[in-house]
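To: structure subgroup
Subject: Chain for Friday's discussion

All,

I'm putting the inputs and outputs inline so they're searchable in the archive.
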Amino acid sequence: MKAPTRNWTEIKSDTPNGQTLRPPCNLAGPLPETRVRTSAYFEEGGRQETPVWTLDQLAPGHRVAGPALLIDDISTIVVEPSCEAEVRSWCFMGC
């Protein structure tokens, strides 16, 4: 199993060791195409063909319009229709 390479949680405070966090860096190019689609049911719109991305396909700054599924080895993020997910990553100053 591959270790996670990105922090998907937005941190809004200083770190315990006093290093200041900075806003996300936009490292993303264009959103990669996904060849995987599945049928998923949503309260808004019922059953819909839904694209699926793995989190390692995405980079900070990517925006994914719903409906969509974002998956990795231990979790699934459901992006509802008419919603948008933004991949964010917080970095220590100087990294």
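Points worth raising on Friday:
The chain has a mean pLDDT of 77.
The radius of gyration is 15 Å.

D.
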